Amino acid sequence: MKTHRSSRADHRTRARVTRALAWGLVAAPLLTGRAAQVIVEHQPEDPSLPPFAFRRVPDPSATDTATRAAFRLLQGEADDNSGPLTVLHDGRIPTGPDEPQANFFFAAGTEGGRILVDFGRPALLRYISTYSRHPNTRGPQVYTLHGARDEEPGFRQPADGRNPSEHEGWTLIATVDTRPRTGPPGGRYGVLITNTEGAIGPFRYLLFDIRPTERDDPFGNTFFSEVDAVSVDPGFVPTPPAEPAGPEPFTVRTPDGRFAFTLDLSRAPELEPWIRQKLVPVILEWYPKLTEMLAVEGVEPPDHVRLVFRPGRGVAATSGTRIVANSRWIERERDGEAVGAIVHELVHVIQQYGRRPRSSAPPPGWLVEGIPDYLRWFVFEPQSHGADLVWLRRQRSPRLQHDAGYRISANFLDWVVRRHDPDLVRHLNAALRLGRYGPSFWKERTGHTLEELAETWRRETEQALAQP
Ligand SMILES: [Zn+2]
Q1: For the CA atoms of 410, 412, 418, 424, what is the dihedral angle to 10 degrees?
Q2: Measured in angstroms, how far is the CA atom of residue 161 from the centroid of ligand 1?
Q3: CATH, domain range 9-231
């Protein structure tokens, strides 16, 4: 019996428990027609209180049924600072209020994602509980929980954006939103999903569809500390199928040994032939070329680049020397834009503008993106006509402003290169990398201000577009 003063706020009445579970297929009469119940407890950070010790929500367990279940990311991307999914079912809880590695959370600025729990066969569950901890808006939990009994005919894992209930075999168990109506959102949260009169049902799969708690800034994805599921039968042992092991990451080097590239496709094994045959030769040929085109005196270009291919959102993103590409998009664009998109990201790796002197002004966004798109569309693959006049003609009333978009900026840079300065991009990159870029750059290199150049480019481009 717990006697401490936990849970100042027991938000039970707030918890939105919606749908009665329809157990038409389940023979056991004690399961029919009962709704799951959701109990939420919020414990603000208080050093005098033991963490995660709630009044009604059980303590996190290291021996529950979920401990030996398989946890898989079905949709969304983990944050680079997040712990692995295993932290959700190892029974260990964070010891401090802000411990990224002891929690699992989705990438900053993303819309959350879906986590699938697989017991291998149906488990009659007594309760499910979830725990989270963060000093601010990443403390509360916002998710829906669905369950599926087993892989019956028509069964699919809901990896797309649709509501899981629209997929054959899936039932809504509970809707959880622990955001307090008033008061600070930080602290520890415990959620108990149970049924007052019996089990909440036999499920082989649980699906957590998780949303950010706020969108005012990119940091709204909850720090989840633990997920427990406890079966009625204490002897139940989950038997999830072993994960099909993807290929190990491998490293390729340029012939001179100067540059190395590690490619991780453990979560996108289907891309292996394309990566080895189409992408790797381009990387080995073009990365050294790009470093030449963007050479900066006294600065060594990164000599080891890591490329990770995995299902995600968007196209690709680079932080430091690490490129993460959405394998689903790459798969769709393997004969289209995929290779060029990676070339664009390689330019970001070389730019390293984040390492410019601290006192210098941040580089303008249109140049950070305009330079990679210039090198991609006008140097690497001019035959694709991705940003030139051919492309402009295909746009409905393109906005001819030099900073109006990646490809428009690339078009503008190409014009300045051809008209005024074949060496523009190397100098521009050096100025940005060394923190020396400013309005005078254009006048010094071309004899004209940026405004003058932009205006002449716009006029000439309009004339060219007007001609048939
Ligand atoms: Zn970019």
Answers
A1: -70
A2: 25
A3: 2.60.120.260
